[in-house]
Write a structure and sequence with these properties.
NAD, six-stranded parallel beta sheet, iron, alpha/beta, FAD-bd_FR_type, heme, globular, metal-binding
Protein backbone atom coordinates (compact mmCIF):
# COMPACT_ATOMS: atom_id res chain seq x y z
CA UNK A 1 0.00 0.00 0.00
CA UNK A 2 1.17 3.53 -0.69
CA UNK A 3 0.96 6.31 1.90
CA UNK A 4 -2.14 7.84 0.36
CA UNK A 5 -3.99 4.53 0.55
CA UNK A 6 -2.93 4.04 4.17
CA UNK A 7 -4.24 7.50 5.00
CA UNK A 8 -7.58 6.71 3.37
CA UNK A 9 -7.94 3.47 5.34
CA UNK A 10 -7.00 5.17 8.62
CA UNK A 11 -9.52 7.87 7.80
CA UNK A 12 -12.31 5.30 8.07
CA UNK A 13 -11.48 4.53 11.71
CA UNK A 14 -14.13 6.94 13.14
CA UNK A 15 -16.76 5.42 10.85
CA UNK A 16 -15.77 1.89 11.88
CA UNK A 17 -15.94 2.80 15.56
CA UNK A 18 -19.46 4.12 15.11
CA UNK A 19 -20.85 1.72 12.51
CA UNK A 20 -18.54 -1.33 12.55
CA UNK A 21 -21.17 -3.81 13.77
CA UNK A 22 -23.68 -2.45 11.23
CA UNK A 23 -21.11 -2.98 8.48
CA UNK A 24 -20.28 -6.48 9.71
CA UNK A 25 -23.97 -7.40 9.91
CA UNK A 26 -24.55 -6.21 6.35
CA UNK A 27 -21.44 -8.11 5.21
CA UNK A 28 -22.60 -11.45 6.63
CA UNK A 29 -26.13 -11.04 5.30
CA UNK A 30 -24.73 -10.28 1.87
CA UNK A 31 -22.24 -13.14 1.89
CA UNK A 32 -24.73 -15.78 3.04
CA UNK A 33 -27.24 -14.61 0.43
CA UNK A 34 -24.77 -14.97 -2.43
CA UNK A 35 -22.70 -17.85 -1.01
CA UNK A 36 -25.07 -19.91 1.15
CA UNK A 37 -22.61 -22.82 1.14
CA UNK A 38 -20.56 -20.86 3.69
CA UNK A 39 -23.33 -21.36 6.26
CA UNK A 40 -21.85 -24.85 6.71
CA UNK A 41 -18.54 -23.25 7.78
CA UNK A 42 -19.70 -20.45 10.08
CA UNK A 43 -21.24 -20.87 13.52
CA UNK A 44 -24.80 -19.68 12.91
CA UNK A 45 -25.36 -19.36 16.65
CA UNK A 46 -22.72 -16.65 16.78
CA UNK A 47 -24.53 -14.95 13.92
CA UNK A 48 -27.76 -14.75 15.89
CA UNK A 49 -26.18 -13.55 19.12
CA UNK A 50 -24.10 -10.98 17.17
CA UNK A 51 -20.79 -12.22 18.61
CA UNK A 52 -19.37 -12.90 15.16
CA UNK A 53 -20.37 -9.48 13.85
CA UNK A 54 -18.79 -7.81 16.87
CA UNK A 55 -15.60 -9.84 16.51
CA UNK A 56 -15.31 -8.97 12.81
CA UNK A 57 -15.96 -5.27 13.47
CA UNK A 58 -13.22 -5.21 16.12
CA UNK A 59 -10.79 -7.03 13.81
CA UNK A 60 -11.41 -4.65 10.90
CA UNK A 61 -11.08 -1.64 13.20
CA UNK A 62 -7.81 -2.95 14.68
CA UNK A 63 -6.38 -3.53 11.22
CA UNK A 64 -7.35 -0.01 10.07
CA UNK A 65 -5.81 1.53 13.20
CA UNK A 66 -2.52 -0.37 12.72
CA UNK A 67 -2.30 -0.23 8.93
CA UNK A 68 1.20 1.29 9.20
CA UNK A 69 2.45 -1.69 11.18
CA UNK A 70 0.11 -4.68 10.83
CA UNK A 71 2.78 -6.94 12.34
CA UNK A 72 1.73 -5.66 15.76
CA UNK A 73 -1.47 -7.68 15.28
CA UNK A 74 0.33 -11.04 15.01
CA UNK A 75 -1.10 -12.38 18.31
CA UNK A 76 -4.59 -11.67 16.91
CA UNK A 77 -3.60 -13.11 13.52
CA UNK A 78 -2.47 -16.29 15.27
CA UNK A 79 -5.71 -16.63 17.26
CA UNK A 80 -7.80 -16.18 14.10
CA UNK A 81 -5.49 -18.48 12.16
CA UNK A 82 -5.85 -21.18 14.80
CA UNK A 83 -9.63 -20.95 14.48
CA UNK A 84 -9.51 -20.88 10.66
CA UNK A 85 -7.34 -23.99 10.41
CA UNK A 86 -9.62 -25.79 12.86
CA UNK A 87 -12.45 -25.06 10.40
CA UNK A 88 -10.42 -26.03 7.31
CA UNK A 89 -10.60 -22.51 5.86
CA UNK A 90 -8.66 -22.33 2.58
CA UNK A 91 -6.93 -19.42 0.74
CA UNK A 92 -9.49 -19.38 -2.09
CA UNK A 93 -12.23 -18.53 0.40
CA UNK A 94 -10.46 -15.27 1.21
CA UNK A 95 -11.34 -14.02 -2.27
CA UNK A 96 -15.04 -14.65 -1.64
CA UNK A 97 -14.94 -12.91 1.74
CA UNK A 98 -12.94 -9.98 0.33
CA UNK A 99 -15.38 -9.39 -2.50
CA UNK A 100 -18.31 -9.19 -0.11
CA UNK A 101 -16.42 -7.03 2.38
CA UNK A 102 -15.50 -4.40 -0.21
CA UNK A 103 -19.02 -4.45 -1.64
CA UNK A 104 -20.42 -4.02 1.88
CA UNK A 105 -18.18 -1.01 2.54
CA UNK A 106 -19.47 0.53 -0.68
CA UNK A 107 -23.11 -0.20 0.08
CA UNK A 108 -23.02 0.90 3.74
CA UNK A 109 -20.98 4.08 3.19
CA UNK A 110 -22.84 5.05 0.03
CA UNK A 111 -21.58 8.31 -1.50
CA UNK A 112 -18.79 8.49 1.11
CA UNK A 113 -17.18 5.40 -0.44
CA UNK A 114 -15.10 7.02 -3.17
CA UNK A 115 -13.37 4.96 -5.83
CA UNK A 116 -9.99 5.74 -4.25
CA UNK A 117 -11.22 4.62 -0.82
CA UNK A 118 -12.54 1.32 -2.18
CA UNK A 119 -9.28 0.69 -4.02
CA UNK A 120 -7.36 1.43 -0.83
CA UNK A 121 -9.46 -1.07 1.09
CA UNK A 122 -9.08 -3.63 -1.70
CA UNK A 123 -5.31 -3.36 -1.38
CA UNK A 124 -5.50 -3.41 2.42
CA UNK A 125 -7.62 -6.56 2.37
CA UNK A 126 -5.32 -8.19 -0.19
CA UNK A 127 -2.32 -7.64 2.08
CA UNK A 128 -4.25 -8.83 5.14
CA UNK A 129 -5.38 -11.96 3.28
CA UNK A 130 -1.80 -12.70 2.30
CA UNK A 131 -0.67 -12.27 5.91
CA UNK A 132 -3.46 -14.49 7.22
CA UNK A 133 -3.29 -17.26 4.61
CA UNK A 134 0.51 -17.34 4.80
CA UNK A 135 0.37 -17.87 8.56
CA UNK A 136 -2.37 -20.47 8.18
CA UNK A 137 -0.32 -22.45 5.66
CA UNK A 138 2.40 -22.73 8.32
CA UNK A 139 -0.18 -23.99 10.80
CA UNK A 140 -1.51 -26.54 8.28
CA UNK A 141 2.03 -27.77 7.65
CA UNK A 142 2.61 -28.19 11.39
CA UNK A 143 -0.60 -30.21 11.71
CA UNK A 144 0.12 -32.46 8.73
CA UNK A 145 3.74 -33.24 9.65
CA UNK A 146 3.13 -33.95 13.34
CA UNK A 147 3.03 -37.62 14.33
CA UNK A 148 -0.61 -38.67 14.22
CA UNK A 149 -1.58 -35.31 12.73
CA UNK A 150 -3.88 -34.44 9.84
CA UNK A 151 -5.56 -31.55 8.08
CA UNK A 152 -9.22 -31.19 7.25
CA UNK A 153 -11.79 -33.46 8.88
CA UNK A 154 -11.13 -36.96 10.27
CA UNK A 155 -13.82 -39.39 11.51
CA UNK A 156 -13.75 -40.31 15.19
CA UNK A 157 -15.82 -42.82 17.15
CA UNK A 158 -17.43 -42.07 20.50
CA UNK A 159 -15.91 -44.86 22.59
CA UNK A 160 -17.30 -43.70 25.94
CA UNK A 161 -19.95 -41.22 27.02
CA UNK A 162 -19.75 -40.41 30.72
CA UNK A 163 -21.99 -38.08 32.72
CA UNK A 164 -19.81 -35.85 34.91
CA UNK A 165 -22.60 -33.80 36.53
CA UNK A 166 -26.23 -32.83 36.05
CA UNK A 167 -25.20 -30.67 33.07
CA UNK A 168 -21.80 -31.83 31.82
CA UNK A 169 -21.04 -35.04 29.88
CA UNK A 170 -17.67 -36.24 28.60
CA UNK A 171 -17.12 -37.88 25.22
CA UNK A 172 -14.03 -40.05 24.65
CA UNK A 173 -13.16 -39.83 20.96
CA UNK A 174 -11.00 -42.41 19.13
CA UNK A 175 -10.07 -42.27 15.40
CA UNK A 176 -12.00 -44.78 13.30
CA UNK A 177 -8.81 -45.66 11.40
CA UNK A 178 -7.29 -46.87 14.70
CA UNK A 179 -4.20 -44.77 14.06
CA UNK A 180 -2.49 -42.51 16.59
CA UNK A 181 -3.75 -39.02 17.25
CA UNK A 182 -1.57 -35.95 17.38
CA UNK A 183 -0.46 -34.79 20.78
CA UNK A 184 -1.60 -31.31 21.67
CA UNK A 185 -0.61 -28.49 23.95
CA UNK A 186 -2.69 -28.54 27.16
CA UNK A 187 -5.41 -25.93 26.79
CA UNK A 188 -6.04 -26.46 23.05
CA UNK A 189 -9.38 -27.37 21.47
CA UNK A 190 -10.73 -29.50 18.64
CA UNK A 191 -13.47 -28.55 16.20
CA UNK A 192 -16.23 -31.05 15.51
CA UNK A 193 -19.07 -30.81 13.05
CA UNK A 194 -22.53 -32.33 13.10
CA UNK A 195 -25.55 -32.04 10.84
CA UNK A 196 -28.32 -30.02 12.48
CA UNK A 197 -31.70 -31.10 11.08
CA UNK A 198 -33.32 -27.98 12.54
CA UNK A 199 -31.19 -25.82 10.24
CA UNK A 200 -30.48 -28.27 7.44
CA UNK A 201 -26.80 -27.42 7.87
CA UNK A 202 -23.52 -28.92 8.93
CA UNK A 203 -22.37 -26.87 11.89
CA UNK A 204 -18.88 -26.71 13.45
CA UNK A 205 -18.17 -26.02 17.10
CA UNK A 206 -15.00 -25.84 19.15
CA UNK A 207 -14.59 -27.80 22.38
CA UNK A 208 -11.59 -27.73 24.67
CA UNK A 209 -9.79 -31.02 25.15
CA UNK A 210 -10.34 -31.82 28.82
CA UNK A 211 -7.70 -34.53 29.29
CA UNK A 212 -3.92 -34.67 29.20
CA UNK A 213 -2.16 -35.53 25.90
CA UNK A 214 -1.96 -39.31 25.47
CA UNK A 215 -1.57 -40.06 21.73
CA UNK A 216 -4.65 -42.35 21.68
CA UNK A 217 -7.85 -40.37 22.19
CA UNK A 218 -9.30 -36.93 22.93
CA UNK A 219 -11.86 -36.18 25.60
CA UNK A 220 -14.27 -33.27 25.34
CA UNK A 221 -16.64 -32.33 28.16
CA UNK A 222 -19.81 -30.62 27.03
CA UNK A 223 -22.37 -28.59 28.93
CA UNK A 224 -26.04 -29.15 28.13
CA UNK A 225 -27.69 -25.83 27.29
CA UNK A 226 -31.02 -25.93 29.08
CA UNK A 227 -33.87 -24.66 26.89
CA UNK A 228 -31.63 -23.77 23.94
CA UNK A 229 -33.77 -23.26 20.83
CA UNK A 230 -31.26 -21.21 18.87
CA UNK A 231 -28.22 -22.52 16.93
CA UNK A 232 -25.96 -21.41 19.76
CA UNK A 233 -26.31 -24.44 22.03
CA UNK A 234 -27.95 -26.82 19.57
CA UNK A 235 -24.72 -28.73 18.85
CA UNK A 236 -24.01 -29.20 22.56
CA UNK A 237 -27.55 -30.43 23.13
CA UNK A 238 -27.41 -32.74 20.12
CA UNK A 239 -24.29 -34.31 21.56
CA UNK A 240 -26.12 -34.90 24.85
CA UNK A 241 -29.40 -36.12 23.35
CA UNK A 242 -28.49 -37.95 20.12
CA UNK A 243 -24.80 -38.87 20.06
CA UNK A 244 -24.27 -42.19 21.84
CA UNK A 245 -21.37 -44.58 22.22
CA UNK A 246 -20.42 -45.93 18.80
CA UNK A 247 -21.47 -42.79 16.91
CA UNK A 248 -19.08 -41.32 14.31
CA UNK A 249 -18.30 -37.60 14.24
CA UNK A 250 -15.76 -35.53 12.30
CA UNK A 251 -12.93 -33.73 14.09
CA UNK A 252 -10.21 -31.35 12.97
CA UNK A 253 -6.74 -31.50 14.51
CA UNK A 254 -6.11 -29.66 17.81
CA UNK A 255 -5.74 -25.89 17.60
CA UNK A 256 -5.57 -22.85 19.85
CA UNK A 257 -3.03 -20.62 21.57
CA UNK A 258 -4.49 -20.55 25.09
CA UNK A 259 -1.94 -23.05 26.33
CA UNK A 260 0.05 -24.03 29.38
CA UNK A 261 3.45 -22.37 29.36
CA UNK A 262 5.97 -25.14 28.89
CA UNK A 263 8.98 -25.56 31.17
CA UNK A 264 7.62 -23.20 33.81
CA UNK A 265 9.02 -23.64 37.31
CA UNK A 266 6.81 -20.96 38.87
CA UNK A 267 3.53 -21.68 40.72
CA UNK A 268 0.39 -22.16 38.63
CA UNK A 269 -3.04 -20.67 39.43
CA UNK A 270 -6.15 -21.82 37.55
CA UNK A 271 -9.38 -19.80 37.78
CA UNK A 272 -12.55 -21.06 36.09
CA UNK A 273 -16.28 -20.58 36.00
CA UNK A 274 -18.62 -23.42 35.03
CA UNK A 275 -17.57 -25.26 31.87
CA UNK A 276 -14.53 -22.98 31.68
CA UNK A 277 -12.61 -25.53 33.73
CA UNK A 278 -12.18 -27.91 30.76
CA UNK A 279 -8.97 -26.50 29.21
CA UNK A 280 -7.57 -25.87 32.69
CA UNK A 281 -8.24 -29.50 33.62
CA UNK A 282 -6.06 -30.60 30.69
CA UNK A 283 -3.29 -28.32 31.97
CA UNK A 284 -3.64 -29.65 35.51
CA UNK A 285 -3.60 -33.32 34.42
CA UNK A 286 -0.49 -32.63 32.35
CA UNK A 287 1.34 -31.07 35.31
CA UNK A 288 0.43 -33.98 37.58
CA UNK A 289 1.37 -36.54 34.91
CA UNK A 290 4.79 -34.88 34.62
CA UNK A 291 5.12 -34.94 38.43
CA UNK A 292 5.66 -31.19 38.41
CA UNK A 293 6.76 -30.04 41.86
CA UNK A 294 5.32 -26.51 41.51
CA UNK A 295 2.56 -25.29 43.87
CA UNK A 296 -0.86 -25.22 42.17
CA UNK A 297 -3.96 -23.26 43.17
CA UNK A 298 -7.28 -24.45 41.67
CA UNK A 299 -10.14 -21.93 41.94
CA UNK A 300 -13.51 -22.90 40.47
CA UNK A 301 -17.06 -21.64 40.70
CA UNK A 302 -20.40 -23.13 39.63
CA UNK A 303 -24.06 -22.94 40.70
CA UNK A 304 -24.21 -25.88 43.10
CA UNK A 305 -22.94 -29.35 43.90
CA UNK A 306 -25.19 -31.04 41.32
CA UNK A 307 -23.58 -29.20 38.39
CA UNK A 308 -20.02 -29.42 39.76
CA UNK A 309 -18.22 -31.71 37.30
CA UNK A 310 -14.98 -33.60 38.04
CA UNK A 311 -15.07 -32.98 41.78
CA UNK A 312 -14.12 -36.60 42.58
CA UNK A 313 -11.44 -36.51 39.89
CA UNK A 314 -9.99 -33.36 41.46
CA UNK A 315 -9.92 -35.02 44.87
CA UNK A 316 -7.98 -37.90 43.33
CA UNK A 317 -5.53 -35.47 41.70
CA UNK A 318 -5.11 -33.71 45.05
CA UNK A 319 -4.01 -37.00 46.57
CA UNK A 320 -1.36 -37.35 43.84
CA UNK A 321 -0.05 -33.79 44.02
CA UNK A 322 0.82 -32.68 47.53
CA UNK A 323 0.98 -28.98 46.60
CA UNK A 324 -2.49 -28.62 45.04
CA UNK A 325 -4.87 -26.31 46.89
CA UNK A 326 -8.56 -26.23 45.87
CA UNK A 327 -10.92 -23.31 46.49
CA UNK A 328 -14.47 -24.04 45.32
CA UNK A 329 -17.36 -21.57 45.17
CA UNK A 330 -21.07 -22.51 44.85
CA UNK A 331 -23.75 -19.93 44.12
CA UNK A 332 -26.04 -22.00 46.36
CA UNK A 333 -24.58 -24.07 49.21
CA UNK A 334 -26.80 -26.79 50.68
CA UNK A 335 -27.24 -27.04 54.44
CA UNK A 336 -25.39 -30.36 54.46
CA UNK A 337 -22.19 -28.90 52.99
CA UNK A 338 -19.21 -28.35 55.23
CA UNK A 339 -17.01 -25.29 55.42
CA UNK A 340 -14.77 -26.37 52.52
CA UNK A 341 -17.17 -24.75 50.01
CA UNK A 342 -17.23 -20.97 49.74
CA UNK A 343 -20.67 -19.42 49.12
CA UNK A 344 -21.38 -17.05 46.24
CA UNK A 345 -19.54 -16.23 43.05
CA UNK A 346 -15.79 -16.63 42.70
CA UNK A 347 -14.11 -13.82 44.65
CA UNK A 348 -10.34 -13.80 44.65
CA UNK A 349 -10.25 -11.55 47.71
CA UNK A 350 -11.62 -14.52 49.68
CA UNK A 351 -8.61 -16.66 48.74
CA UNK A 352 -5.81 -16.62 51.34
CA UNK A 353 -3.01 -14.40 50.05
CA UNK A 354 -0.44 -17.17 50.30
CA UNK A 355 -2.20 -19.06 47.48
CA UNK A 356 -2.19 -16.12 45.04
CA UNK A 357 1.51 -16.30 44.32
CA UNK A 358 3.26 -13.15 43.08
CA UNK A 359 5.45 -15.06 40.61
CA UNK A 360 2.74 -17.45 39.41
CA UNK A 361 1.33 -17.97 35.94
CA UNK A 362 -2.44 -17.30 36.02
CA UNK A 363 -4.96 -18.94 33.67
CA UNK A 364 -8.57 -17.71 33.57
CA UNK A 365 -11.40 -19.28 31.58
CA UNK A 366 -15.08 -18.42 31.64
CA UNK A 367 -17.55 -15.81 30.35
CA UNK A 368 -16.28 -12.36 29.39
CA UNK A 369 -17.40 -10.54 32.58
CA UNK A 370 -15.88 -13.33 34.72
CA UNK A 371 -12.52 -12.92 32.97
CA UNK A 372 -12.51 -9.13 33.20
CA UNK A 373 -13.35 -9.14 36.90
CA UNK A 374 -10.52 -11.47 37.86
CA UNK A 375 -8.03 -10.03 35.38
CA UNK A 376 -8.51 -6.57 36.85
CA UNK A 377 -8.31 -7.86 40.42
CA UNK A 378 -5.01 -9.61 39.71
CA UNK A 379 -3.61 -6.40 38.22
CA UNK A 380 -4.77 -4.48 41.29
CA UNK A 381 -2.75 -6.73 43.62
CA UNK A 382 0.40 -6.36 41.55
CA UNK A 383 0.34 -9.38 39.21
CA UNK A 384 2.04 -8.63 35.89
CA UNK A 385 -0.27 -8.67 32.87
CA UNK A 386 2.30 -10.88 31.11
CA UNK A 387 1.59 -13.54 33.73
CA UNK A 388 -2.19 -13.55 33.17
CA UNK A 389 -3.60 -15.69 30.35
CA UNK A 390 -7.29 -16.00 29.51
CA UNK A 391 -9.75 -17.49 27.07
CA UNK A 392 -13.37 -16.63 26.42
CA UNK A 393 -15.33 -19.35 24.62
CA UNK A 394 -16.71 -18.26 21.23
CA UNK A 395 -15.41 -15.39 19.05
CA UNK A 396 -13.13 -13.17 21.07
CA UNK A 397 -15.25 -10.21 22.13
CA UNK A 398 -13.08 -8.94 24.98
CA UNK A 399 -9.69 -7.42 25.28
CA UNK A 400 -8.76 -7.32 28.91
CA UNK A 401 -5.40 -5.66 28.27
Amino acid sequence: MNEQQKALVKGTVPVLKENGVLLATHFYERMFKHNPELKHVFNMGNQQNKKQQTALAMAVLAYAEHIDNPGILMPVVDSIGQKHTSLDIRPEQYAIVGGHLIASISEVLGDAASEDLLKAWEQAYHELAQLMSGHEQKLYKEKSTKSGGWVGWRPFRVEKKIKESAEITSFYLYPTDNGPVADFLPGQYVSLRLFLPELGLLQPRQYSISCKPNGIYYRISVKKEIGAKQPDGMISNRLHQHIEEGAIIDLSAPSGNFILKQGETSPQVFISGGIGQTPLLSMLEHLVDRKSPVPITWIHGCRNEQVHAFKQHLHHISSQHGKLQQHIFYDVVSDSKTGDILPGWVSLNKIPEEFLYRQAQYYICGPGPFIKTHYNYLLSIGISKDSIHFEEFGPASISAA
